[in-house]
Amino acid sequence: MLQTMTVEEVKSKTTDVVLELLPHLEREDLGDESDIFSLGLDSINAMNLVFGLQESFDIKFDTQEINVDNFRTVADITELIMKKK
Q1: How many other β-carbons are positioned within 10 Å of the β-carbon of residue 72?
Q2: Tens digits of per-residue pLDDT, 62-72?
Q3: CA–CA separation, 82 vs 27, rounded Å?
Q4: What pTM did the predictor assign?
Q5: Rounded CA gap, 18 and 36, in Å?
Q6: Residue-range domains of the chain with CATH
Q7: Nearest-5° angle of CA 10, CA 70, CA 63?
C-alpha cells in the first residue's frame, strides 16, 4: 500500500494518526511543521504514535529511527515514512 501513496496521502494519513492521539486538536491546528510534542504529545503517546504509524502504513521502524527528531513534526514523520518505500 505505501508503495502507491503520494507524499500528500502519507502526510494526510500521518496527520490522522497524530490527531487520534491528540483529540483536543483540530486538523487546522496541526501544521506540517508544528512541534507535536509542544502541542501535547508525551512519551507514552509517542510510543502509541510509533505503533499507530506502523500499523497504518504496514511498516516497521528500525530502532535507530525511533527518536524525537524523526517524530517531532508531521513533515519529519512523512519524510521518514517516504524513505520506507
Answers
A1: 17
A2: 999 999 999 99
A3: 21
A4: 0.95
A5: 8
A6: 2-83 (1.10.1200.10)
A7: 105
